[in-house]
Design brief:
Strand content: 25-35%
Distance between the termini: 51 Å
Largest sheet: 4 strands, antiparallel
Structural class: alpha+beta
Length: 147
């Protein structure tokens, strides 16, 4: 894939689509590209999280512990959105289900982009706040069902 292809892929990813072209170019240029063979483990459940990943080719299965993927990330999907902003521990093991390529977006790279493009930081903050609000609303709805 070319740099322009990587920029287009990043622009389609959830949350990253809020970035302007120059910010996307910086991300695409500075991101680490990782090639995985079928069966390669990208990260394991419990590992410290320090990056998010965009799947550019192939499929990555995410398994929380049952031995089968709970979710399969495909081309254009963002794995580890929360890990772009805060360090924590991985809730699942990510394994390539086919030969795959991912772009690794480190916390420090995202921080650099947000410092250079503060207007983007505000847009991302608003989008994340909306997502969290919807999640809290769903939890409240579930709580009322069982309460």
């Amino acid at each position: 894939m070319s740099l322009d292809d990587d920029i287009a892929m990043l622009a389609q990813a959830p949350l990253l689509g809020l970035l302007e072209r120059d910010a996307l170019r910086l991300l695409a240029f500075a991101a680490d590209k990782r090639r995985l063979r079928q069966g390669d483990v990208l990260f394991r459940k419990g590992d410290r999280s320090d990056a998010g990943y965009i799947v550019t080719e192939g499929e990555i299965g995410l398994d929380t512990g049952g031995g089968k993927p709970d979710l399969v990330a495909k081309r254009g999907d963002l794995i580890g959105q929360t890990a772009l902003f805060i360090r924590g521990h991985r809730p699942a093991t990510a394994t390539a289900r086919a030969p795959s390529v991912v772009l690794r977006l480190s916390v420090s790279l995202i921080r650099r982009v947000l410092e250079e493009y503060p207007e983007v930081a505000a847009s991302m903050h608003a989008a994340l706040a909306e997502e969290l609000g919807a999640f809290n609303g769903e939890l409240a709805r579930i709580g009322r069902r069982f309460g």
